[in-house]
Each structure stands twice: as structure tokens, then as C-alpha cells.
Design a protein that fits this description.
Jelly Rolls, 17 strands, alpha+beta, 25% strand, Lysozyme-like
């Protein structure tokens, strides 16, 4: 095959619609406007009089009931939750509003109590209900549900958008230090990645999960997210290209040059960067200076390497109805766009002249939101 025909074949391959398993994050389920919850589980000896669930047995007791969720506008057939539950005696069930049978969620547990759980129901519209059952907790524990989502568990296709003009490209642009997939012990993708060699945009996310405090915790969380995405959401690999923790550590997700799975219908040419934690009420993890500096260094590299327009940086919520990347992270996007282009920040955002390329960035002051105290209210 001639070089010209090979290039034409590659272009045709990249222009074809790409199959993405399920949704990027489905529809986030909220209860009275809240997307997560915490509840206490008492040891069995301290709670003998707790009520049994409808249809339950003497071996189970009800420890949490969400009540009906807020309206869910789309049809769905799959429930997926993730959180932390130190005691394996706690299990979850889901049901529809119409009084249908409770379906147990299949639990997948990780070291330290991190878990995700999934159940399939018949496909239909309408709200859902979630409950937790205890089959014999041995000590008092607190269970955290970071998020609940629903989706239709089938492939969806997306077309190819028009690529905007690029700036200069530098194939040897220096990349910041990135902890590789091998370092955090990623597993291989379940199928070959689709090529996406010349990205032109960047999307910021938050993991809506555990806020890690050490590199070891971040590596463990990366393994959890990869498993959650592969076996929970049904994708071939972790969705994002880069993960950034509060200490400024950058972990490699999918390699550069391959298609991500983080923004449904807008994955092509899109580098996904996720902040580990939940940067939205009621949790309100605050992006740290080290974290923002790390994202800025990544952005400067991507702009230099691929000619990406710094203004192409968006939050996940700019593409779909979602809280992601959270109010506290979304408020930093303007400053990050300036940092991506290594441009001076407006006087309102910086108290001194713009820093040099590798000096710390003067970030926006922390915005004020209601509900700043950490923790989840009960649903």
C-alpha cells in the first residue's frame, strides 16, 4: 500500500463513528437534590430492635432507605453506585417507584472498604429507590455513598466533530513528571484502544469519590476507578488520560494518542483530566495550589505539544447536564486557561505580576458556597 493510501485509510478510520459502552457517567441520581449520603451502621448487639426490610429475613436488618429519588428524565435499566463501606456485612438493593421487586446490587469490594455495586432492572423511565441491609456488622461503622447513577447498558455511537485551527506543534515539548500505568499497576485494556493521535481540546472532571492524601492512596484509587470503569460501566479501560491528586501528583490513565471515554459524544480529540475527590457541595473538597499547578503544567505541555488552543479547556458540565467537575473546580477554569497559555492573569485574580512558566500560579481565591462544612447530609 502506498504512503498516500495508508494515510487516507487512517483518516477514514478516525472519521468513523466510535462505539462507547454505556454513557460517560449515565444520569446522576439525586435524592432531595443531594447526590451522596452517609449513614451509620451499629453493631448487631446494639441494634436488635432494628426493623426488617419488606421481604427480608431474620438475618437482615434495614439500615438505610433513600426514599424515592428526584425525577430521572431518561429511561434506564442499570443502577451503579460507588463509595466506602468498611464492613462487608452491608449490602445494597434497588427498586423502581412502581413498587417492583428489590434487586440486590452485586458488590465489588477493595482494600480499605472502597466498593462499587451494580444491578440490572427492566428498562423504563421513572425514579428509583436505594436501601442498605446489614447481615451482621461486628462493630459500629459509617458507610459513605459517593454517587448513584443510572443508564441503559448498551453501546451508543458518536460522530466526529470539526477540528478547529491549531497553533504550532512541538513533538519534543517537555512533559511534567507523570506516574505511569505500570507504577500504579494498571491492568491491560479489555480491547485495543482506538487511535486519537492529535487532540485539540481538554476537559476537566472530578472523580466524585475519595479525596486522597498520599501517592499510595492515589494509586489505589486509580486501580479502583479503572475496575469501576471496566466492570461497572463496561468500558475497555479507565476513562481519563490523566489523574491529579491534592499533592500535585499526576498519574497516567489512558495513554496520550488514544480515545478517552470521559465525555459522551465529545471524546474525540479530547484529553480528559480528573481531579481525585469531590469538589462540589455538600462535600466541597478544595482544589489545592499543588493540584492546580500540576493541571497548569499539564495544560502548558498539551498546548505546546499539540497546538491546542488554551480556550478549549472546558468542564464536563459544559458538555452535558452534570455537576462535574464541581463548583469549586469549575470556578478555576478561567485561571487555568490563562495558565495553559502562560498568559498574565487579570489584577482581580493575582496580587503580583504574572509568574514565569515554571513558577507557582497565583490562583483564584477560594469562592464562597453554602454548605462548606465537609460531610454528607442524610437523604
Amino acid at each position: 500500500m502506498s504512503a498516500r493510501r495508508a494515510r487516507a485509510a487512517a483518516t477514514l478510520l478516525l472519521a468513523l463513528p466510535v462505539l462507547a459502552r454505556a454513557h460517560d457517567a449515565g444520569h446522576t441520581v439525586t435524592f432531595a437534590g443531594v447526590s451522596g449520603t452517609r449513614f451509620a451502621v451499629q453493631a448487631r448487639a446494639a441494634a436488635q430492635a432494628a426493623p426488617l426490610p419488606a421481604g427480608g429475613s431474620l438475618a437482615q436488618r434495614l439500615v438505610y432507605d433513600s426514599g424515592l429519588s428526584d425525577p430521572i428524565p431518561e429511561a434506564w435499566d442499570t443502577v451503579l453506585i460507588q463509595g466506602e463501606s468498611p464492613d462487608p456485612a452491608v449490602a445494597f438493593e434497588a427498586a423502581r417507584e412502581d413498587g417492583g421487586e428489590w434487586r440486590p446490587l452485586e458488590m465489588h469490594r477493595f482494600k480499605g472498604g472502597r466498593f462499587w455495586a451494580k444491578a440490572h432492572l427492566r428498562q423504563a423511565q421513572g425514579p428509583m429507590r436505594l436501601r442498605a441491609l446489614d447481615s451482621g456488622a461486628k462493630s459500629d461503622r459509617e458507610v459513605t455513598v459517593y454517587g448513584v447513577e443510572v443508564f441503559v447498558d448498551e453501546p451508543a455511537s458518536a460522530g466526529s466533530p470539526i477540528v478547529p485551527p491549531r497553533g504550532p506543534e512541538n513533538p519534543v515539548a517537555p512533559r511534567p513528571i507523570v506516574h505511569t500505568r505500570a507504577e500504579w499497576k494498571a491492568v491491560a485494556p479489555t480491547e485495543p484502544w482506538s487511535p486519537d493521535p492529535r487532540p485539540w481540546r481538554v476537559t476537566l472532571h472530578h472523580s466524585d469519590g475519595k479525596h486522597t492524601t498520599t501517592l499510595a492512596e492515589s494509586e489505589a484509587e486509580a486501580r479502583f476507578i479503572q475496575d469501576f470503569h471496566i466492570h461497572g460501566r463496561g468500558w475497555i479501560d479507565i476513562a481519563y488520560h490523566f489523574l491529579v491528586d491534592a499533592q500535585g501528583n499526576i498519574l497516567e490513565g489512558r495513554p496520550e494518542g488514544v480515545l478517552g471515554a470521559h465525555t459522551l459524544g465529545n471524546n474525540e480529540g479530547n484529553i480528559g483530566i480528573v481531579l481525585l475527590g469531590t469538589y462540589h457541595p455538600p462535600v466541597n473538597n478544595v482544589p489545592t495550589k499543588a493540584q492546580l499547578d500540576a493541571v497548569a503544567s499539564l495544560g502548558r505541555y498539551l498546548v505546546a505539544r499539540y497546538g491546542i488552543d488554551p480556550k478549549s479547556l472546558k468542564g464536563h458540565r459544559d458538555y452535558k447536564q452534570t455537576d462535574c467537575p464541581g463548583n469549586l473546580a469549575y470556578a478555576r477554569l478561567d485561571a487555568l486557561r490563562l495558565a495553559f497559555g502562560d498568559l498574565p492573569q487579570p489584577p482581580a485574580f493575582a496580587a503580583r505580576p504574572a509568574p514565569a512558566l515554571r513558577e507557582p500560579i497565583a490562583w483564584l481565591s477560594e469562592p464562597s458556597f453554602d454548605g462548606r462544612e465537609p460531610g454528607f447530609p442524610g437523604l
